[in-house]
Please model this.
Amino acid sequence: MRPRLLIIAYVFPPSESVGARRPGELARFAVERQWDVRVLTATSAAPDALGAGIPEGGIFRIAPVPRTAQLVSSVRRAEAQSRVGRRHLLTTLGTIGREILIPDACVNWVVPAVRQFMRTRDGWRPDVIVVTGPPASAYLVAARVARRLDVPWVADYRDLWTVGNDYWPYGRSWWRRGIDHGLERRLLRSAACCVTISEPLAEIMRTTFGIDTKTVMNGIDRQPMPTVDVPGPTWPAGPGSSTLTLAHTGRLNPGKRDPSPLLDAVSLLGPEARRVTVVFAGEDNGVARAATERAGVAESVTNLGEVSAEKSWRVQVEADVLVLVMWNDPRDAGTVPGKFFDYLRARRPILMIGHPNGIVADIIRSRDAGAVLDDPREIADQLRRWLAEKDRVGRIPDLPASALDGLYRDDQLEAFLEILSDAAAAHRSRRRPVR
Model:
């Protein structure tokens, strides 16, 4: 009999969210390896979207309870505002909701997800469940389904929850963190094991919760990105072919993922600053604009705002250099953004701004995939070197294909299936009656 796997993921293809990729690719890979896969998600289907690599009939697309949708929307807007420091804009409803919706604003999905899956599964029972988060509410769904069906569940942390770097920026209080931390500890007592994206994060889970935690990185997708035909240039052309274009795609966060060192470096270039274009493509939360104004380099910056996945890919492949902004703090050493693998896939050199020691910094250095810098003067010197190279040879060369060896997603997913198989086998051995 084929091994049976239930994947629980709040976001799943056709969602373009970065969080949908890991469960989507795991589902595809498991199906290719002859696993019997079902998916439980809150993401609705889209008729014109690309397939998820699994028959649509095997996907349980269950929406959150409608009656709390307005409250959830208010909380999400409040969280977005708090991330850019606009606390005076927080509504009373958002402030209260952010504290009382435990574990997060997706809690209205838990009851309908469990109830409808149990009603419509038609007798199908998984050998093992894997749930990916955030949101943390998905872990509640997994624990409840696993208990009802008496099957093991594995918690996959794309980002850590109460012990992660991104917990506090959402403005939660210490008492709220205590509640969440206690809830996380209780949930993990019933989990077979945990999986996360880097060894430093895995060690945090082991030492904090005493749970067996494995490392399965994200990776580079082998499938070609769909092309998009957008008329005209992606951004305004600079003064000639020797213009150096640096691009950042995705979200920026004040105080953590802040592009100020790069923009300050551009301002240090003096007259040469007009030969540099910095492109931002992602949620326009004011961080890039504020940093641009502080540095006084508005003429060198183009802000495209939020774009589709296809256009984001075009921005990456058309840039000379891709900018990866991370937190300049040792606590970020284990963070490996999914965007990093997109950048490698585009095979453009990467300028990483952030702490010089960590998983991402080590990969960039060991594979000669770019530069890791945070001091504006050093960044300015690197920009001058890239400008000189472009003047000399006409372009910044692609990264060699060998720089990507061993970093493809399929290289990681093989180990993921082994972890899930081991969890299922260990559970079966415990349930086997003693003769």
